[in-house]
Amino acid sequence: MESQKLPVKELITQAIAALEHAYTPYSEFKVGAALLDQNGTIYQGCNIENAAYTPCNCAERTAFFKAVSEGVRGFEAICVVGGKQGVLEEYAAPCGVCRQVMMEFCDPAEFKVILAVDEDHYDIYTLAEILPMGFGPANLA
Questions:
Q1: Which of 4, 22, 99, 100 is 20 to 30 Å apart from 92, CA to CA?
Q2: Could you confirm whether 119 is annotated as catalytic?
Q3: Which H helix or E strand runs over 53?
């Protein structure tokens, strides 16, 4: 169920390109993300590992933090791809921490999460579907 205005194939292409920059000397599990803002700009992110493990950053959060650090606060969709040594064989879903970051900046009923292995094999979910009963800013109002 691809949205007519959502550039799904471009997001998949950009996420796959971002995967090439992943720094994963420990897990060898490379992840790329392409985040679409409300103005049509795409921010790429990759996962970045660290020998101490705790300072690692996921591709999704890298993309969000790049956009937010430039003043962007409105988002439409994100595409996530990933696999061992960068080989895309199955979907790589966002971790719980990344889903929580999405909840901070996105409308869970509207924000789209695209999980893909290539331009022909993908599924689209809403954030609400992958984070039911999510806790966000509205809970503190």
A1: 4
A2: no
A3: none
Catalytic residue among 2, 20, 60, 76: 60
Given a cut of 70, whether residue 4 has pLDDT beyond it is no
Residue type present at position 49: E
How far is it, in rounded angstroms, from Cα 84 to Cα 73? Answer: 32
Work out the end-to-end distance of the chain between its first and last CA atoms, rounded to an integer number of angstroms: 33
d(CA 1, CA 4): 9
pLDDT in tens, 67-113: 999 999 999 999 999 999 999 999 999 999 999 999 999 999 999 99
pTM of the full predicted structure? 0.95
Residue 127 three-state SS: helix
Predicted local distance difference test score (pLDDT) of residue 3:
47
Cβ neighbours for 40, distance < 8 A, ≥ 6 positions apart: none
The single residue listed with the structure tokens 């599924």 is: 123
Strands (E), the chain: 29-37, 42-46, 75-84, 112-118, 121-126
